[in-house]
Target: Alpha/beta hydrolase
Amino acid sequence: MQASALFGVLAAVIFGSSALAQSKALVTEEAMVKSSDPGIEIYVRNKRPADMTSFRPEQTIIYVHGATYPSETAFDLKLDGLSWMEYIASRGYDVWLLDLRGYGRSTRPAEMADKPDANAPIVTGETAVKDIGSVVDFVLQRRNIPRVNLLGWSWGTTLMATYTTQNASKVERLVLYAPSWIRQTASLVQAGPGRLGAYRTVTREQARERWYTGVPEDKKGDLIPVGWFDAWADATFATDPVGAAMTPPVLRAPNGVVQDGQQYSGAGKPYYDPAKITVPTLLVHAEWDKDTPPYMAQALFPLLTNSPGKRYVQLAEGTHTIIMEKNRLKLFEAVQAFLDEGRKD
Model:
């Protein structure tokens, strides 16, 4: 797949007073990648060391988001001077993120310009996996490499795992952060009563309430450092100007994932066959996760019967969104250790 437009390239040295800041020059690129459907383009962002001149599968990674929010406002959100994307890139990796159609900076399907109930749910897992495939092929071609590492969060774990079962030859390692599996408890992603429409809307307060679900009362006070929620919410809701102009401001999110959840995980049916994953796989999540509770990873892990060197890590004192909480470095370190095992230098 070809990029239809390159927004620009910039080199940035990441400095700061924070102990987390990295003194490493990184190059940033952005592009729109043509999807398998006419008129639909997928936003991608790349960060890598400025002095990186050769590219290898084990040092290339692509990230995809979950059911509701886009990639860059979590994976590449600077908190205390550092984003997770930069953390990985500064360690010698070629790091990519993408927004599925209907999310973030990617093309919004035409149905999102209409009322939610005017159309059936859009952007199902089948469609999302095709978008991931378009981006993987773009990166493979651009870097002239045969494989990449894949990293998914929440619904993104289902998508990246499904892609891997279908394209094992293109995947080096698979990281599933907050892995989703067959559900035994109610989903926190709610589309409201009545007929399931094309998309749903979320307010900042709903997002905040969902984030804190399951956190012990005496732990809520310092879970999210001061200002971090607002930084994330400001960046996230700004990606949907149409929703931001509503009263109250909302973020619109496609409902294909909700429909899939009703038909598969919510009905006791697996979306993909874990036995078809034949690459090293990491399952990592936090103990207070109520979106994809610990029982999901615990049920999924033994089903990865053909994953060599599979790994399961549970992190203390964190939620589904530990990526942006006080203990986020524990997530970063666990994933980095798994990725670094695959390096040949």
